[in-house]
Amino acid sequence: MKRFFVLTILAMLATSCGNSSAERQSAAPASLHKAWWKEVVVYQVYPRSFKDSDGDGVGDLKGLISQLDYIKSLGVDVVWLNPIYASPNDDNGYDISDYRAIMPEMGTMADFDALLKGMHERGIKLVMDLVVNHCSDDHEWFKQSRSGRNNGYRDYFHWWPAEKGTPPKRWSFFDEESNAWHFDRTTEAYYLHYFSRKQPDLNWENPKVRQEVYGLMKFWLDKGVDGFRMDVIPFISKDTTFPPLPAEYNGNYPAYYAKGPHLHEFLQEMNREVLSKYDLMTVGEGAGVAVEDALKFVDEDRKELQTFFHFEVSDWGRRKGDFMYPDSSRRLPDLKAVFDKWDKVFEHKGWGTVYLGNHDQSRMVSRYGNDTPPYRDSSAKMLHTLLLTMRATPYIYFGDEIGMSNIRFTDIRDYRDLATINYYKRLKKEGGNLAEFLAGQAEVSRDNGRTPMQWNAGLNAGFTRGTPWLKVNPNHATINVEGAEKDPNSILNYFRKMIRLRKTEPALVYGKFDLLDAENPDVFAYTRSLEGRTLLVALSFSTKGSSVALPARFKTGKLLINNLTESPVQGNGLMLKPYQAVVLEVGK
Ligand code: GLC
Fold it and tell me: What percentage of the chain exceeds 90 in pLDDT?
């Protein structure tokens, strides 16, 4: 009871501080300016893992087309599709050898046209991945570039001639030696690759490279695609004298790579030449971008991008360093503080995004929820409630709508991701602790998020009639779309209901966000307020019953959604069951 009063006082203070800062605002915040891309819900499809139509074990465009009615039934508005362009697949399509062709495993350009048509007929927009920090070493540009120092394409990439000595250290994400310079014998020079050796970085200092990129963007936009998700876009600009790294960035290479000298000039030029000419949506992958720099990318007056993904939620609960490990010491109040901080960044300008999973992360329910049998269902629903009640454009990763969970491989031979495989090789060479590494990867590896979609309980979960490129999670026997469709209380049907709620409550899109009871270790609670309407969201992140105090002036009203059957309201507070999630009206 004592704790209840303390929490009440704290919550009142938090709320009144929130109000006074709002009162200081004279004009309506720019973020209240309505735009279709602020109101949409995005569904991310990793095409290799979604649906295989021809039995080669790899998902493809025809497979995706066959599931468009399912996607429509979710209530989402946009599909973001990971790369489907021609690629030798060193990094599953993030190494592109022809930006204007479709990878044969995925299908043909005619399949692509049919896909786009099928989406548009259903009122679904398509956002494509734009991977232009680097291409594949099989791209004609690189083949030309590496063939001779005087070749016309030489300056499409970053070369360091061997006679200048060893180039200054740059880290690589996927290289076995974490060395971003690779020596190429043909011309006795090193080329730069922030990612794998088969992903040479393009030289954006060269205006011809930028024109090539703008040309390929127009090619897809003129076909009718509705926007781009821009892969590691903050890394495109580099100081091409390659000075030694400043001491403050040692070890923190994403932050250093995101601060190139001409980055914002390039984005403004891209905006002038391409983006401003179309009605589209843009989202940058904001690797390394900190709150201080956020508005440089998305302040409407600067005319660069509309939104980007920051990494502070996906980094939460992970020990950083070259290899990733889970860190169980992270507490819920830290996570809430991250959401609160990023909401404030876009309170008056720009606009945010929210995601809890993607193809580079392990499964949402395994990381932020609890995938053990008693809690998987409720915690997945709770996380969908979070995603769909934030003041930001929500991105939902395929399979999360049915609560797919980590597969947790224990054998390195089961992995397909070059990041895990190359880290393993490096650690082995260095004599590191391989058992600890594998235990960590079982929780954080990207392949956890890439296992095939679980359509039914049958062979290979209905994903393929062949051998799947990555193992199917054995839990498809119970976790699959077919079963979820039949159960009115499934995660899938809750997700649909939650999307409908977001669509009928503008406060959930545009309303002001105020965190309540910030230090509460078990409950994430906040209000969303717009034009006199206030909604309260309370989410339990605990396996125990937990309470949250409400400001004394609040009167809880109608319960709009609840992931459990028990009502949580008690007097002036809420008593939540484990992983309970509710959205309520609040009266004054
Ligand atoms: C981005 C992609 C990731 C890819 C990397 C290199 O982080 O999301 O999948 O491996 O860029 O392109």
Answer: 88
Q: DSSP 3-state assignment of 356?
A: coil
Question: 53-65 burial string, b = 16+ CB within 10 Å, else e?
Answer: beebbbbbbbbbb
The reported pLDDT for the residue numbered 10 is 34
Q: What is the largest CA-CA distance in the chain?
A: 78
Show the tokens assigned to 552.
Answer: 């004394």
Q: Is 61 in the pocket of ligand 1 (CB under 6 A)?
A: no
pLDDT for the residue 175: 93
Q: pLDDT category, 27, cuts 50, 70, 90?
A: low
**Do residues 270 and 213 make contact, with C-beta atoms less than 8 angstroms apart?**
yes
Compute the distance between CA of residue 317 and CA of residue 335 in angstroms, rounded to an integer. 9
Phi, psi of 334 (to 5 degrees): -65, -40
Residue 13's pLDDT band, with cuts at 50, 70 and 90, is very low
On whether the CB atoms of residues 232 and 286 are closer than 8 A, the answer is no
CA distance 44 to 126: 10
| DSSP code string of 106-152 | T--HHHHHHHHHHHHHTT-EEEEEE--SB--TTSHHHHHHHH-TT-T
Q: What is the pLDDT of residues 247-285, one digit of tens each?
A: 888 888 999 999 999 999 999 999 999 999 999 999 999
- Residue 57 main-chain phi, psi, to 5 deg: 90, 0
**In terms of pTM, does the model score above 0.70?**
yes
Most informative mutation of 49, 87, 94, 201 for ligand 1 (most atoms within 8 A of CB):
94
Q: How many whole angstroms from 536 Cα to the centroid of ligand 1? A: 36
pLDDT at 14 over 70: no
Q: Indicate whether residue 94 lines ligand 1 (CB < 6 A).
A: yes
Look up 304 and say whether it is catalytic.
Answer: no
CA distance 540 to 559: 16
- The verdict on whether 231 is a catalytic residue reads yes
Ligand 1 mean position, distance from CA 232 (Å): 7
Distance CA 20, CA 17 (A): 5
What contacts 329, CB < 8 A, 6 or more positions away? none
Residue nearest atom 4 of ligand 1, based on CA coordinates: 94
CA atoms of 561 and 581, how far apart (whole Å): 8
* Tokens linked to 422: 């190359």
| CB-based burial, 488-505: b 16+ in 10 Å, e otherwise | eebbbbbbbbbbebbbeb
Query: Could you tell me the distance, in angstroms and rounded to a whole number, from the CA of residue 415 to the centre of ligand 1?
Result: 17
Span 346-356, mean pLDDT? 97
Identify the helix (H) or strand (E) that includes residue 293.
Answer: helix 291-298
In ligand 1, the atom with minimum distance to the C-alpha of 133 is 12
90 lines ligand 1 (CB under 6 A): no
Angle, helix 263-273 to helix 207-223, in steps of 10 degrees = 40
How far is residue 167's CA from residue 189's CA, in Å, rounded to a whole number? 10
